[in-house]
From TrEMBL:
A molecular function (GO) term: L-histidine N(alpha)-methyltransferase activity
Organism annotation: Dyadobacter helix
Enzyme class at the top of the EC tree: transferase
EC number(s) on file: 2.1.1.44
Segments crossing the lipid bilayer: none
Biological classification of the source: Bacteria, Pseudomonadati, Bacteroidota, Cytophagia, Cytophagales
Sorted UniProt keywords: Methyltransferase, Transferase
Gene: egtD
Protein name: Histidine N-alpha-methyltransferase
Source species, domain of life: Bacteria
Length: 334
């Protein structure tokens, strides 16, 4: 047993740090940074450990969480039009970032296979478990699909796919882009652009601004699933960084501002409390009602979508919309 006074990750000791699994080091560094800030935050990318990914699948099945159903509708009913607009004229890759369970994407892949078009599906996801489940489901549903899954984060995967000879359709579906603050969203899009060759396409999901109550209900769900999803962050930190968060002493809160289009999600400390994180060898104090910001979910106008595309060098080919006009899959070209 490690003594309670020796942190597992002494971040000031480069030699010790070098032996730490890189993923946990990232978590340690970022949690230290976020919980030491004046306005505490935990990056939403840590929501998706294996448990988190499986809770997120439950979120996607809730009727209040409309984005999944909207995009399912778009990809089910309009895949022929999407395929028509690709116009690659030779075999291509479909590279999906943050593939998740792939149920929506399957609608598009199925149509492509029926059309007899030659392509390879390259799903990229940070969760190995999510990727393994995805592969199993895809093979079962579409046995003839050519598939090359890649586990890792987006940026480290760019080199693995930059084969200029084969055109690419990049998929960045769901409301993934909305989880990046404006500047980071623009940076991500410009790194997509840099990884793409001229003629490559990007199909990217944007959740649109709409009746604010519809948005609020999607994020403040009555079943407590979104709450469990957020609290799982603390369980994960307890497990991976040997911390002693008392999860029941935290609540979930979220807020939609229809003027800015931002949904912000938080954990709330219900009491004044101290939490020890063994891996950092540090104690963190929380005041009663102190917030930990966990997620931004930006909702967009078409003007914002067009200027994001333009700013980063893309041409907007087409906006594919669901029947309620809640959501768009926007097809961009380099
Ligand atoms: N990131 C996704 C989104 O913005 C998933 C999500 C839904 C989420 N509700 C959340 C993430 C609450 C954090 C907090 O739609």
């Amino acid at each position: 047993m490690r003594s309670t006074t020796t942190p597992l990750y002494d971040l000031s000791q480069a030699d010790d740090a070098a032996v730490i699994v890189e993923e946990n080091l990232n978590l340690a560094v970022e949690i230290d940074h976020g919980l030491s800030a004046d306005l505490k935050f935990i990056s939403s990318k840590f929501l998706y450990d294996d448990t988190g990914s499986s809770i997120f699948r439950k979120i996607m099945q809730m009727k209040e969480y409309y984005p999944t159903a909207c995009e399912f509708e778009i990809l089910s009913l309009q895949s022929a039009q999407i395929i028509d607009s690709l116009n690659f004229g030779r075999p291509f890759n479909i590279v999906e970032f943050g593939a998740g369970d792939g149920i929506k994407t399957r609608q598009l892949l199925k149509k492509l296979l029926e059309t007899g078009i030659d392509f390879t599906y390259v799903p990229i996801d940070i969760s190995e478990q999510a990727l393994a489940d995805l592969q199993e489901n895809m093979i079962e549903a579409l046995p003839e699909l050519k598939m090359k899954p890649l586990a890792g984060d987006y940026f480290s995967m760019f080199h693995a796919i930059s084969d200029a000879a084969t055109p690419n359709l990049f998929l960045f579906l769901g409301s993934n882009i909305g989880n990046y603050p404006a500047e980071a969203a623009s940076e991500l899009l410009s790194s997509f652009y840099a990884a793409m060759s001229s003629g490559d396409k990007l199909l990217i999901g944007f959740d649109l601004q709409k009746n604010p109550k519809v948005i609020r209900n999607a994020y403040d769900d009555p079943h407590g699933i979104t709450k469990a999803f957020n609290l799982n962050l603390l369980t994960r930190i307890n497990r991976e960084l040997q911390a002693n968060f008392q999860v029941s002493q935290f609540d979930f809160y979220c807020h939609y501002d229809p003027i800015s289009g931002e949904v912000k999600s938080y954990l709330v400390s219900l009491v004044a409390q101290k939490v020890w994180i063994q891996a950092l060898g540090k104690e963190f104090s929380f005041q009663q009602n102190e917030l930990i910001w966990t997620e931004l979910s930006q909702k967009y106008t078409f003007e914002q979508i067009n200027s994001l595309a333009k700013e980063n060098g893309f041409i907007v080919n087409h906006n594919f919309l669901d029947c309620r006009h809640y959501f768009t899959d926007s097809l961009w070209e380099k």
